[in-house]
Amino acid sequence: MKTSLRIDFVSDVSCPWCVIGLRGLEQALDSCAEDIMAEIHMQPFELNPGMAPEGQNLDEHLLQKYGATPEQFAATREAIRARGEELGFTFRMDRRNRIYNTFDAHRLLHWAGLAGCQTALKHELFKTYFTEGKSPSEHAVLIEAARKAGLDPDAAAEVLSQGLYADEVRELEQRYTGAGIHAVPAVVVNGRYLIQGGQPVEVYVETLRNIARKEAAAA
Prior knowledge:
It is a single chain. This protein has 219 residues and is α+β, with helices and mostly antiparallel strands. It has a single domain (3-218), classed as Glutaredoxin, CATH 3.40.30. It has helices at 16-31, 58-66, 70-86, 103-114, 118-131, 139-148, 153-161, 166-178, 201-218; strands spanning 3-11, 36-44, 56-57, 98-99, 186-189, 193-196. The strands form 2 sheets. The protein has a 4-stranded mixed β-sheet with strand order 2-1-5-6. Strands 3-4 form a two-stranded antiparallel ribbon. A hairpin with a 3-residue loop joins strand 5 (186-189) and strand 6. The two termini are 12 Å apart.
């Protein structure tokens, strides 16, 4: 009998390690499909909640936030690009030169969850920012991503223009930061187990199987 797991994937659409984490998690779940049945819920986390809508130059932002050198930036970006390639995702570093506010993207993701298209939209938003270099704070960009994910673009436009689901997103953000999550991606399984960071596929596989065994034994 398969073990059912609820997975809350806490992440930001402007986080490259979240792309790696989600891709790795999904591939791990494919490998565990005979034993585990999982339901993934995307949960909001803003790396830069105070970011202005127009964003900030990426190098300038990283220097202010982390104080790393240009050489360190370059090495990290190459590591991210290579990890993405291994997982079938294309990072176009030459197209991504700004960091943006992502609150509206999280509002749209919350709505997409109610419509059953949350994971599809999450992947589209990652592609929009990291592959195409478009701003996830622009409503026109978000609406197009929603359309590509199979959602009604007119309904998406209404969500964005009317400020819908702002309170719900804020509440969820506070719930997870209040639970001690201050870095993403964070994978919360059945509300009790935490897998932190963009782990390799094999790490996800081993950890998920261990959790499934514990849950099955406790049932």
